[in-house]
Protein: Sodium/potassium-transporting ATPase subunit beta-1-interacting protein
Organism: Seriola lalandi dorsalis
Amino acid sequence: MGCCSARCMLILLCCLQLITALERQVFDFLGYQWAPIMINFFHTIMVILGLFGVIQYRSRYVIMYLLWMLLWVGWNVFVSCLYLDLGGLSKDSDILSLGVSSHRSWWKDNGPGCESEVLPSAGWHNQQNPELTTVLSCWLEYQYIEVLHCIAQLLISLLGFVYACYVVSTFSDEDDSYYK
């Protein structure tokens, strides 16, 4: 087995997926976006199981990872369409927070180069409501940051899907023979 085999590349891609999922999870927690938090949690579990399958030569785990990647790609396309207001979806809806709170993307108020202005009313200074600040301008608007996150996830996932297909095809049927 060479140093840059498909199996090693898939292990690297799974590790990269775990890192980017953790980063995405942190910002979804900061924005109280409950649907992405749950989906990212399942994604982390599936990638860990896929990683286990690749390391232990278990094709069934890698196939499960492949099936999850199809769902993950669909989720990222949905989130991209939501933030770009495509297909009748709106970034101003509370779909991602599951209607539990009025919170939005953390990047909306804290994006790169964002200048925000706190409402001047003296009675509101002790309140911790994110709706009381107004973002004047940002270097990159929050919806594009979220879409860039989705694009990065899509690229890594599609590469992982391709390598996982190849890895599953190289595993022999004897590798899972004790399950039968």
Q: What stands out?
A: Strands lie at 115-118, 133-137.
